[in-house]
Design brief:
With 329 residues, the chain is α+β, with helices and mostly antiparallel strands. It is built from seven helices and 20 strands. The longest helix has 19 residues, at 297-315. The structure holds flavin-adenine dinucleotide (FAD). Residues 16, 50-58, 72, 88, 112-116, 118-120, 122-123, 125-127, 180, 187-188, 218, 224-226, 324 line the site of flavin-adenine dinucleotide.
Amino acid sequence: MGVNVQENIPLKAHTVFKIGGPARFFVEVKSREELVDALRFAGERGLPFFILGAGSNVLVSDKGFDGVFIKNSANRVTINGEKILADAGVMLPYLASEAARAGLSGFEWGVGIPGTVGGSVRGNSGCFGSEMKDVVEAVEVFDVNEAKSPDGRAIEDPRQGRDYKLKAKSCEFGYRDSIFKHSPNFVIISAVLALKKGEPQLIQERMKDLVSRRVDTQDIGAKCAGCIFKNVPWSRKDIDQKALLLRFPVLKKFESAPGISAGFLIDEVGLKGQRIGNAMISRKHANFFINTGDAKAEDVIMLVALVKERVHRKFGILLEEEIQYIGFE
Ligand SMILES: Cc1cc2nc3c(=O)[nH]c(=O)nc-3n(C[C@H](O)[C@H](O)[C@H](O)COP(=O)(O)OP(=O)(O)OC[C@H]3O[C@@H](n4cnc5c(N)ncnc54)[C@H](O)[C@@H]3O)c2cc1C
C-alpha cells in the first residue's frame, strides 16, 4: 500500500466550517494511483469511502465518519494553448491565478471560490453569473460502479473500476447540479477547461474587482460552508412564479432573475444574526452560517431546520440544501 492511512482523525481540521467528529480512517492522496490504493483499502475492509476536496461545502456530523475519508490533494496544472488540464485537487483561486498568468480569460470568477476542481465540477459551482459548466470541456472520471458492494458505496476491488472521459454535455450540468451528484461512485480525477486569450491587465483588474465585491457581501475568513441553501429557481416544478409574485410583491425584484435568492428569503423572515449554540446566521449574508466558536454539527442542523420552517411558513417555499451532509446516516 503506497498511501499513509491514519486512524481516528478529527475532520473539523479538514473542513472550512471547522466542525465534525473523527474519520475512522483518513488518507491524503496526491495522484490517481494513490486514490485507487485508498479505494482498495476501503474495498478490502468493506468500508464506505468519501472523497473530500477542500471541505468548503460540507457539514460533517459530530460523530464523524465510519469509513475511509480520502482527501484529494492531487494538484497538477498543465496549460496548452487555450486549454488547461487541472487535477481534481487543484484549488480554484490558484487555477484562476495560473490562467491569468498565462493570459487566459473566462475563469477570473474562480478566484473567490475556496474549493477544488473536483468539488466544484460536482456541484457546478459558480458566482457572478458564471458557472463551471461555462468553462469545463471534459472531465476525467474513475468509475468504481462496476466494483461496488451491495451497500452501494463500499467497493470490493477498485482495480475493476474504469477511467473514462466525459464531454461537458454528458456531465448533465444544471444549477448546482451535475451527473456526479447522482453517481457517488464517480470519482473526478481531472478536468479540462477551455478558456480564451485575453488582455492580462484586464484579467487582473477583473479578478481584483470580483474579490472586492466578495469582501463587501461575505464574511471573508469566517468558519463557514458557503451557501447553506440553493437559491430557488423559478423553473423548479413546485414553484408557481405567477402566484408567488402576486401574493408577495417583495419578490418582484427577482422577476427577471433565474430565481429567488435564498439569502433574501432568510432575511425576510428576520433570521439574520439568529444563533443556536455557537452557530450563527451571518448578519452580512443570510445564506452563510458562521461557526462563531466551537459550534457542533447539531447546532447547524437545528438552525437549518429553523430556517426551513420559517421560510416555508411565510412563503410556502421549501429551501433545499446546497451543502453536503456527511456521517448523518
Ligand atoms: C467562504 C465561502 C465562499 C463560497 N462561495 C461560493 C460561491 O461563490 N459559489 C459556489 O458555487 N460555491 C461557493 N462556496 C462553496 C464551495 O466553495 C464550493 O461548492 C466548492 O466548489 C466546493 O469544493 P470543495 O473542494 O470544497 O468540495 P468539498 O466541500 O470538499 O466537497 C463537496 C462535495 O464534492 C465531492 N467531491 C469533492 N471532490 C471530488 C472528486 N474529486 N470527485 C467526486 N466528488 C468530489 C465531495 O464528496 C462532496 O460531496 C463557498 C464556500 C465558502 C466557504
